[in-house]
């Protein structure tokens, strides 16, 4: 991915998520790294051998890091491949994807991690980081070989879309994570409470005649996990960390807030869908908005936005989950869960900025710096010596989401024909324009 030819992005609004500051200037990239940043990076100063790109006042910031995306390989290349996912990511300004382990076979062995890394090296435009299975076969019974998987290149450990139901298994997994300094990314939902439902439980679900999933299904499992973190990870100095993959209710936010207040090593994310949409957007049984967790009420959505602005929610993810036509063009209760999101995560997030709900620096930090800090990555910073993973975008340029023009192999976007602002004009990975 790297290139020895220096490239300078000049005449830009430089947004550094670490400081939250914004200045006018440029970024100079060479040999895969940022070697200059600031007001003195101009066409006159970078030298004749440097390719200078005038950004015309567009924003330049670190490339986005998506901590939750399904990429299809191995076993579901009809839905997405590493190549198509990485093209979609590059189009949306995402330079690093954390790939979920729920493939076929699951990412529960060193050989599968190695396969993903080799396929990414050969076919990906952006960085693909494998998230390995927390339990063998994602079955929730036997802990996977965390040490061997981490040594093979796994960036974190998750049980995919399913929770680890057994508290004893989860406690043991956290103990191993502590011993190996590993990050656990857990999807928290009580499967018994959620099993019969297909959307958020409440008045709107009743009107549609659809069975609901109560908020408590998420909160009960989050509460259990926080107690297990206190039991196993509290006070550890080895880098072990618990990250709630998706929080979507005020009940969960209250639990996370209390855990953070006592210093537990925890963080959380929510999806751009839950920040942008609510249960009424399901409308007349729109299956592209059948998501897991389900879209909540407008009051819950606004609470999530407020929690993002305050920093209680650390990270925004796309929750990219491509599904083919046959899985979505069916009755709502029979449709598969999921929506694509790599290409719309940034512009959908910019809606929150344009509405005055979230500062731009906070939005960008939740997609760059905070994921990098949680995963221990050098990316996500606009500083000398950092990897030259950069994007240039115009936050005010309008466009209409056309599924036919999206790079993802599947087209199940919840923002079909939506009017948005925020066009990514350039994506750079390790100093190379992709």
Q: What distinguishing features does this structure have?
A:
single chain, 434 residues, Urease, subunit C, domain 1, TIM Barrel
Helix-strand category: alpha/beta
Q: Globular, elongated, flat, extended or rod-shaped: what is the shape?
A: globular
Mean pLDDT: 96
Which radius of gyration do the C-alpha atoms yield? Answer: 21 Å
- Reading off the top of the CATH hierarchy, the class of the largest domain is best stated as Alpha Beta
CATH superfamily of the largest domain, by name, is Metal-dependent hydrolases
Q: What quaternary form is this?
A: single chain
CATH-level-2 architecture of the largest domain? Alpha-Beta Barrel
What is the count of β-strands? Answer: 18
Q: Indicate the percent of residues in helices.
A: 25-40%
Number of helices: 15
Kindly report the CATH topology of the largest domain.
TIM Barrel
Tally of separate domains: 2
Unreliable spans are none
Amount of beta strand: 15-25%
Euclidean distance between termini CA atoms: 9 Å
Question: Largest sheet, described in full?
Answer: 8 strands, mixed
């Amino acid at each position: 991915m790297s290139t020895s030819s220096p490239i300078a992005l000049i005449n830009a609004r430089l947004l550094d998520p670490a400081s939250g500051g914004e200045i006018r200037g440029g970024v100079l990239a060479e040999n895969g790294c940022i070697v200059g940043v600031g007001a003195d990076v101009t066409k006159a100063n970078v030298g004749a051998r440097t390719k200078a790109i005038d950004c015309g006042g567009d924003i330049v910031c670190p490339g986005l890091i998506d901590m939750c995306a399904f990429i299809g390989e191995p076993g579901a290349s009809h839905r997405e491949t590493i190549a198509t996912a990485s093209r979609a990511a590059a189009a949306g300004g995402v330079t690093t994807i954390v790939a979920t382990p729920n493939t076929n076979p699951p990412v529960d062995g060193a050989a599968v991690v190695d396969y993903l890394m080799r396929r990414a090296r050969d076919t990906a435009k952006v960085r693909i980081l494998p998230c390995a299975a927390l339990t063998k076969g994602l079955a929730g019974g036997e802990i996977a070989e965390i040490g061997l998987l981490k040594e093979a290149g796994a960036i974190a450990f998750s049980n995919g879309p399913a929770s680890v139901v057994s508290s004893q298994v989860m406690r043991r997994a956290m103990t191993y994570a502590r011993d190996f300094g590993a990050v656990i990314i857990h999807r928290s939902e009580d499967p018994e409470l959620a099993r019969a439902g297909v959307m958020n439980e409440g008045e709107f679900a009743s009107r549609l005649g659809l069975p609901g999933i109560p908020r408590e299904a998420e909160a009960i499992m989050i509460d259990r996990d926080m107690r297990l973190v206190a039991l196993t990870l509290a006070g550890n100095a080895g880098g072990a960390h618990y990250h709630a993959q998706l929080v979507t209710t005020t009940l969960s936010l209250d639990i996370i807030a209390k855990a953070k207040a006592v210093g537990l090593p925890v963080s959380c994310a929510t999806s751009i869908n839950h920040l942008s949409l609510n249960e009424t957007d399901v409308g007349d049984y729109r299956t592209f908005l059948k998501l897991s967790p389900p879209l909540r009420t407008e009051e819950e959505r606004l609470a999530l936005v407020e929690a993002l602005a305050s920093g209680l929610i650390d990270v925004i993810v796309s929750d990219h989950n491509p599904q083919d036509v046959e899985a979505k063009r069916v009755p709502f209760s029979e449709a598969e869960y999921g929506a694509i999101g790599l290409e719309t995560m940034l512009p959908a997030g910019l809606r929150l900025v344009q509405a005055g709900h979230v500062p731009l620096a906070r939005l960008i930090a939740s997609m760059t710096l905070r994921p990098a800090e949680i995963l221990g990555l050098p990316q996500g910073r606009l500083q000398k010596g950092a990897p030259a993973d950069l994007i240039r975008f115009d936050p005010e340029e309008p466009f209409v989401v056309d599924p036919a023009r999206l790079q993802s192999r599947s087209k199940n976007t919840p923002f079909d024909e939506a009017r948005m602002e925020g066009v990514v004009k350039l994506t750079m990975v390790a100093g190379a324009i992709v």
